[in-house]
Amino acid sequence: ASACSLSSSANAVEHCHFQGYVEDLPGSSVALSICSGLRGVLQMGNATYGLEPLESSTSFQHLAYRLEDMRTEPLECGTPHVDGNELSKGVSMQTKRAILHQTHFVELLLVVDNERFVHMNRNQTAVRDGMVQLANYIDSMYAPLNIRVVLVGLEIWSQRNLINTDGGAGEVLARFVQWREQVLGSRRRHDSAQLVLRRSFGGTAGMAFVSAVCSRSHGGGINYTGSSVLVLASIVAHELGHNLGMNHDDGRACYCDATRCIMNSGTTGSRNFSSCSSDDFEKLILSGGGSCLLNVPQPDEAYNTPYCGNKLLDVGEECDCGSDKECESDPCCEAQTCRLRQGAQCADGVCCKNCQFLPAGAVCRPTHDECDLPEYCNGSSPVCQSDVFKQNGHPCRAGHAYCYNGQCQHYDAQCQAIFGSKAKVAPEVCFRAVNFKGDRFGNCGYQGLGYRKCEIRNAMCGKLQCENVQTVTVFGIEPSIIQTPIAGTKCWGVDFMLGSDVPDPGMVNEGTRCGENMVCLNYQCVSADVLKYDCDIESKCNGHGVCNSNKNCHCDSGWAPPTCEVRGYGGSVDSGPTWNENDTTLRDGLLIFFFAVLPSLVLVLYVFFRRNQLRQRFYLKKRSQVDPQISCVETHSVYFSGTGNYTFRNRDALCEPFPCLPLGPPLFFFFFLVFMSGVFCVS
């Protein structure tokens, strides 16, 4: 029997989940489900209310309560208090929403562990309905940030867990994202995968990587809660927020419309994001870390209830701009029919502008690293091509580092990201001495409830050690800094203390080269063979390209995919066309040059070099018209270049005839050029 059940069909979802607002109450929001009774959440002002059926009632009674008053197990992230500067209370989420004017889409995939499935009486329908309800709640929470959270897949581990869920939260998270990269990524496209667990991790509600939403290796999180879907929604929204670049609000000068916000540490039950969260997300977008969020989920990918007006492209729709009021300013889409307006080709997407497809060859996702590769619009779709990059294990930084998930991973860049542009990696003796301690400033990750000491062979994959640093970090979050003098060298390390639900960015990045043919993975220095780099550029790409993450050739400019063997415009079968085959700009320019500019230039040059003959002929013609008997000038000799020496006698003598201008060769040359230019342009 199958150990899991993967469902990704929107047809299986009943149309019983809704979002809206309370009439005549600005700023309110409602997310409801009527699948099995009336359940949902209502936000009105600073108060948030839960609504669900009273299980013991036989007369369809419902229970309404404030989420802030719910008693839940105290789960904290452990982030310490850090004082920050005061933020003006006049800064509201409305202002932030104006900044984040473009809609971003998070393609979410939920995985339910076996313990939770058993707790739900092995009822797949009940689990599915609960997870769809969960996604609906999360989507409504992110709406003020102009972020749509779309459930694109649901996996239920119905027979057994497919990873070991024993150990600490960090260990389980590492196993889950590794399984996601190796197994789940190829089965269903998504931006973030969240594992929903029944078991707890002491005082930790969940854990996720920061700014990893578009990462193949780290785009995920783990979440624990009891039976309440409303509380679980707050936790998953919190961990997903970490994936979206959001840090904890604790100790920061943040403004929030509620007492506590979603990104406060611990389970808050809040539905509000703070100004700090929107700032963090904006930084993620500006730094290029959210490139995958511009992909509009296709109708066959969204695991949602289809209806016109939900601002998602469902089956049978050409566009969906939302409610009638939201569609008033949309020039591309008709609100009532969810059809494109007359003359419009598209309504949304990074390859759509002014209701028209961008031409083929337009860059829709530029490179941000030497290990990244660009993607281009294809001219017939508003969606950018899927993100690809150089194959993991491709050498970079002049052969001193490896490409890993689109980035050239090396120690110096990691030190500079924390300590500034002058910082560089410390000697290996620093890594060995510090990471052997097994404390918060030197370790190789977690082991149970404590830190793991690094073995000597793994020391270069533990806490990052730098030298030549500034005392003030440039990372954006103030960490604790430690200086360890070793063998005459000052070794610098950091501890960001982001809480137990966030991996420490002060650790060495995975994919970093830790020795000859060695690479860091899961805090261990292992053979680079695990990256499975098998690209022979010379034989596979004929020496004119590189292998991408799909193991296809990305050709250099001047060579054509798929094998870079013949001349072309570069790119790959995955990148989209790098040129626009319908673009006639070059052809039109050549036609104008050869049929207008070049003939005019030839004529001007001809007149310039024959100016004396033309002037003489014009002069004789004019004299002949004045006195028909005079056909010659006074006796004198005139020398013409290329025409010989002609002597004119007096007016009574018989003049020698004026020679004809040699028009044949220039005219022949002119028509030859026109003919050849026409052949060239047509070809």
TrEMBL record:
Q: What is its main location?
A: membrane
Topology of the protein relative to the lipid bilayer: Single-pass membrane protein
**Which residues does UniProt mark as catalytic?**
E239
Q: Where in the cell is it found?
A: Membrane
Q: Which UniProt keywords apply?
A: Disulfide bond, EGF-like domain, Membrane, Metal-binding, Transmembrane, Transmembrane helix, Zinc
Disulphide bridges, residue numbers: C256-C261, C364-C384, C555-C564
A GO MF label? metal ion binding
SMART domains attached to this UniProt entry: ACR, DISIN
Q: Name the GO cellular-component terms.
A: plasma membrane
User: Where does the Peptidase M12B domain lie?
Assistant: 104-297
Q: What is one GO biological process annotated to this record?
A: proteolysis
Name the positions where Zn(2+) binds.
Answer: H238, H242, H248
Query: Ranges for the EGF-like domain?
Result: 531-565
Transmembrane regions listed in the UniProt entry: 590-609, 658-680
InterPro entries xrefs: ADAM_Cys-rich, Disintegrin_CS, Disintegrin_dom, Disintegrin_dom_sf, EGF, MetalloPept_cat_dom_sf, Peptidase_M12B, Reprolysin_adamalysin
Where in this chain does the record put each Disintegrin domain?
305-392
Write down what this protein is called. ADAM metallopeptidase domain 9a
Q: Which organism is it from?
A: Scleropages formosus (Asian bonytongue)
Task: From the UniProt record, report the name of the gene that encodes this protein.
Answer: ADAM9
